[in-house]
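User: I've been trying to design a sequence by hand for this structure and keep getting stuck. Would you show me what you'd pick, starting by listing the structure so we're on the same page?

Assistant: Good idea, let's start from the same input. This is the structure you sent:
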């Protein structure tokens, strides 16, 4: 029984990046699908595909690596808000990651988005993770 499915998702991606895998497969949920879309839109993953086979389906994520040095684009992916200790941020106090080079993914009342988008829409929410 997995109590923190977002941490499991992030750990699978982190382990696949460290092992040098090209594709990682994770169990799907609506929140994980939204996080995957954000990672794709921000250029951290190459592509993704949602498979609805089975009871909940899976997400196949093609990881992105630098063409010349073969270094992964995702240097660090870190869970911030956990089930035991929730972390919230208001619209005016959204975190900046690596002075704007990384992103913070935030779950707001307007949906899942980056911290920069949440500040622009003037909404706060739960800080899910940092990616850089």
């Amino acid at each position: 029984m997995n109590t923190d499915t977002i941490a499991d998702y992030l750990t699978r991606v982190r382990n696949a990046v460290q092992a040098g895998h090209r594709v990682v497969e994770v169990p799907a949920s609506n929140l994980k699908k939204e996080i995957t879309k954000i990672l794709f839109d921000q250029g951290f993953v190459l592509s993704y595909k949602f498979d609805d086979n089975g009871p909940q389906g899976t997400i196949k994520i093609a990881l992105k690596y630098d063409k010349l040095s073969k270094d992964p684009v995702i240097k660090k992916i870190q869970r911030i808000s956990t089930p035991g200790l929730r972390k919230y941020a208001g619209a005016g106090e959204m975190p900046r990651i690596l002075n704007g080079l990384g992103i913070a993914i935030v779950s707001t009342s307007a949906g899942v988005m980056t911290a920069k988008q949440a500040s622009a829409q003037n909404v706060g929410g739960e800080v899910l993770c940092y990616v850089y």
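That's my pick for every position. To get oriented when you compare it with your attempt: Helices lie at 5-19, 30-41, 115-120. Strands lie at 23-27, 45-51, 58-63, 77-79, 88-89, 103-108, 111-114, 125-131.
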